[in-house]
Amino acid sequence: MGVGSEEASVLTTMLLYIAQETVGRVATILFAHQFSQRIEAEVKFYRFFADIVNDVAFVLDCMSPAMPILGRVVTLCLSNACRAVCGVAGGSSKAILSSHFAKAGNIGELNAKDGSQETVISLLGMWVGGVVVSKVHGTLATWSWLVPLLALHLWANWKAVRSVRLNSFNTNRALVFFRAALEGRTLDMEQVAQEETVLGWPAASRGIYGLEPCYFQVGSSVQDLVHRVYAGADQPSQPASTVGHLVQLFCDEDYLLWFDIETGEALVLLKDTATGITQAKGLCHMLRCYVKARTLTQATGRDVSERVDECQGTDNAPETASAYLTTRHRRCFRLLADALHENREQWSVIREQAERAGWDLGLTNLTKTRDRRVRATGFVEDKKVR
């Protein structure tokens, strides 16, 4: 029962079991509630994360006999919580990867063969484990075997996750691909996988194009937009005027983009008609804003906002000289309009090149929080999709 003491009574064992199960099931519910919508986009991360928390559970189990009574209870409960999290993350990511590997739609056959493979591996593991346990005695010997085996397990799973070549864009892969696309290069799945990282952000997104900070979010809410716009406003009425100009600028698009030229922060709001292709297009537009801002800064050696003041906006920009807009917001709109004009002209070419390289833009998933949509008519309002 994992009690760790020969003096434990049946009642103590039962109460410990109930405590472990309670903590484990609560952890399952909380983890699923908080992270279930992120797993599909970051399937590689959560597949490897499941192995990490599973190994942490093994370590906690081995530590528990050396703990005092209260510490032992806490350790065993944490161990069960780790296994519960592993079950949610591992099971969900496995289902997503199964649909990826079932190229001919044969998910049933794939799962059946995968189950047989797991049975064989479990059987071999049981035999080898029986031999190892019979030969290993003492605390030092136990840890001397446990640590290398866990390291080998994580290394093998790391290599397995890294070998997967997904044909859909998440934020990580999209940043790598569109960064190269704006430089005139088209990367296939193999090339993107070489730059993609499983844990954390790729180098391409750490201070995108040298701008700091580089916070951005796809699938933001109207509240997030108003909050960012309000930070640069001088009067309470200015955020509403700025949002109205933004709706006018993006009236022919399925997304809204706000890019703050002074802080480098960007928000992409998805309209209720947005698709995966819309998310990819919005991210590409956002990167163009970063590129133009960096280019203006490097060309003059001055602050980017000062350089934008000297540039003329495109014909499709709203009347950014409106008295209701601050100087900072007018600069933002000039840059947004210029980048939008370029993005509209070049998007069809980039999309064709991406599809030719094997990417499915319709499967793009760049949202990491609750999926939100906005309805833009004369004003904008949030519309939760799920």
TrEMBL record:
GO cellular component assignments: membrane
Protein root UVB sensitive/RUS domain residues: 1-182
InterPro entries, A to Z: RUS_fam (IPR006968), UVB_sens_RUS_dom (IPR054549)
Protein localization: Membrane
Major location (coarse): membrane
Database matches in Pfam families: UVB_sens_prot
Domain of life: Eukaryota
Keyword set, alphabetical order: Membrane, Transmembrane, Transmembrane helix
Tagged with keyword Membrane: yes
Family: Belongs to the RUS1 family.
The protein's name: Protein root UVB sensitive/RUS domain-containing protein
Lineage, broadest ranks: Eukaryota, Fungi, Dikarya, Ascomycota, Pezizomycotina
